[in-house]
Amino acid sequence: MKETHLKGRLQAIALTACAAAMIWACRETAAEAKTAAGLCLTVMIPSLYAFTVLSKLMISTNTYKLIGRPFSWISRYILRMPAEFFLISQFAGYPIGASLISQMETEGKITPKQAEEMLCFCIAPGPAYISAVAVAVAPDIAGMSGYIFLAVAGANLLGVLLTSFTRKIPPRSEEKAEVTFSASLFTESVRAGAESMAMICGMIIFMAAVMGILGKLRAFGAVSALLSRAIKYPPAQIYPFVRSFLEISNLTRIFGDVTVTIPMAAAMLSFGGICVHLQIMSVCR
Fold first, then answer.
1. What global pTM score does this model have?
2. What is the number of other CB atoms lying within 10 angstroms of the CB of residue 27?
3. Residue 16 class from Cβ within 10 Å (0-12 exposed, 13-18 middle, 19+ buried)?
4. Do 59 and 100 form a contact (C-beta atoms < 8 A)?
5. For the chain, first and last CA: distance in Å?
């Protein structure tokens, strides 16, 4: 009881301190939130919304079950996991793979331990978001989004292969994939897609406000300078990647040496940023 009471007090103090810090750095938080809102309107929603609706429609109509059928033998005996979950997570974007895994665990098809393991390599930004980042990182070079996508998906595939021996061969599914489509499913997918984008953009804008506080404290500059001395690279080029550790959409602000920024962008996209992990935690409860 005392530990619970102490924990509650600490949380209250932390929230109060955060509110006071936002008042102290009100100009910085407002500027960051304004920039993040513009990013959502000009980059995030145009590049992700339609793909999010399509992904949700594929799930609600059971189309996703057909996607993995051609790879069923490979998925059972080599990957030892449902192929459709891995494939959809790579193409649909960060929250979708986590949502499918959570649903599978809730239905008792996999254990919580298996669900946690699958989250390690069923998380990816998706080609639509990668294209938006690639255009920002290397606007004059065609095909960069394809290279970044292959790097991110390849890393996840390697994770699946290296951990396959720890999983049992899943039983063959006798369930038939009956695809159903209706106007109500379409409108529901549009509504669910809008809710997902509202959550994503809301998290981005709130995280931007928090980053405004850190910016006024000059925390990003200090970390960039520290990393610059360690890896011998200009702090100005490291700065956006430090910000991306908290919120991945900051990658769209990167301009620089393509030979350096493309590998670093792929690495950061594989991680996803703290904001994405909070979204995944929310989806998986």
1. 0.77
2. 10
3. exposed
4. yes
5. 24
